[in-house]
Amino acid sequence: MPARDAIEQARNEVKTSPTHVKKLPSTPAGAGVLIGCMTLLLALLLLDAPDDPVESDQVPEFVQLVVAGESSKALALLKEIGGHKENHTEAKSLVKLIRTGKPALAPEMQEALFLALRGIGSRKATKDLLALLKHSTLKKEVEIRLGVCRALAGSADPAAVDALIDRLRDVDDTVIAAAAEACASYRYAQEEVRKELFQTVCDLYESTWNQKNSVSPDPKDKVGKVKAERRWEIVEAPMERALQLLSNASENDPPSWRRWWNKNKNSRWGDIER
C-alpha cells in the first residue's frame, strides 16, 4: 500500500475510533498504541502541510507573445511579472533576454522589462545586471545603463553600490538621474553604505549646481549654458530626494547640504526605521 494511502487509512481510523485513544489501558502495550496514534497524527499534519513554494516562470510565455507580435499582451504580462517579489527565477531569465538580445525587444518593451526587474527586486540577479554594464557592446547603450540603474533600485543590494557610484558620473544626464533615484532606495541600508552614497551624491549635486551658476552669460557660449542648465534640471530632484532619504534630514540647497555633511559626516546617524 502506498504511503499516502496508508496515512489516509490511518486518518479514517483515528476519526472513527476516538475512544481507542481516550481509554487506553495503563500498560506498556497501551502506551505503545498511544505512541503509534501520535505518530500517525504527526504524519497527518505533515500530509496537510503546504509544499515548499515553487517559483513560477512566466518569461517563456512573455517571449512567445513578443515573437507573435502581441505587444499589448506582452506588456501586460511584464507588469504582472513585476509584481512577483523576489522571484529570482524570472529575474535571471529577464536579464538573460537583454544579454542575448533574443528575441529583439522594442525600446518600449525593454524599458518595461527593466521596470519589471525593479518590481521583482531580486538580489540574486544583481550579478547578472552588473554584467550588462561590463558587456563590450551593451555598456555603450544609454538605454541599458539607464535600465540597469532602474532595476537595481528594486533590491538596494550593497553589492551594487560601486556600480551606482560609477553611473552617478555617467556622461548621460538621464542615467545620472536614474542612478540617484536608485541611491534613494538605500535609505534602510547600513550607515556606512548610506554615508558613502550620500557623500558622492552631495559632491555631484554641489558641483552640478556650481557649474550651472558659473557658466558665462556670454552669448557665444550658449551651448555650454544650455547644457549645464539642462543637466541641473534633470538631476536636481532625484539627487535632492536621495540626500533626504539617505540622511533622514532636510535642507534647501547644495550649500546647505554641504554644511550638513561637514557637520554630520563623523557622527553616528543610526538606522532609519521602516
The residue-averaged pLDDT reads 86
SSE series: HHHHHHHHHHHHHH
- Count of folded domains: 3
- Overall geometry comes to globular
Radius of gyration: 29 Å
What fraction, in percent, of the residue positions are helical? 55-70%
Q: What is the total tally of β strands?
A: 0
Task: Give the termini distance in whole angstroms.
Answer: 53 Å
Largest pleated sheet: none
Flag low-confidence runs: 17-22, 44-52
Number of helices: 14
Structural class: mainly alpha
Q: Strand share of the residues?
A: under 5%
Summarize the structure in words.
- The chain folds into 3 domains: 46 residues, no CATH class; 98 residues; 90 residues.
- 67% of the residues lie in helices and 0% in strands.
- The protein is built from 14 helices and no strands.
- Helix 4 runs antiparallel to helix 5 and helix 6 runs antiparallel to helix 7.
- The two termini are 53 Å apart.
What's this entry about, in short?
The protein has 274 residues and is an all-alpha fold. The chain has three domains: 3-48, no CATH class; 58-155; 185-274. It has helices spanning 3-16, 19-22, 28-48, 59-67, 71-81, 88-100, 107-120, 126-132, 142-152, 161-167, 173-184, 191-214, 222-247, 254-264.
List the helices and strands and how they pair.
Blueprint: H1 3-16, H2 19-22, H3 28-48, H4 59-67, H5 71-81, H6 88-100, H7 107-120, H8 126-132, H9 142-152, H10 161-167, H11 173-184, H12 191-214, H13 222-247, H14 254-264
Helix pairs in contact: 1-3, 4-5, 5-7, 6-7, 7-9, 8-9, 9-11, 10-11, 11-13, 12-13, 12-14
